[in-house]
Amino acid sequence: MRLLHKLLAVASVALFIVSAHAQNTGTVTNHAFALGKGAGKTGYTSLLCGSAQLAVGQSAADPICQTLTGDVTINVSGVTAIGANKVTNSQLATMANSTFKCRNTAGTGNAEDCTSSQVRTLLSLVIGTNVEAWDNDLDCIAALSSTGQIKRTGTGTCSAGAVALADLATGTQDTVIGYFGSTTASATAISNCTGALTYSTSTHTFGCNAAAGTGTVTNVATAGLATGGPITTTGTVTVTAASKSDEQTGSSAVVAVTPSQQQQHDSAAKAWLYATQSAGTYTLQAAYNIAGFSKTGTGAITVTMTTAFASTSYSVVCSPAGIGSLITTTSVSSASVFLLDIRNLSATNIDANVACHVFGRQ
Question: Is the pTM of this model over 0.70?
Answer without folding.
Answer: no
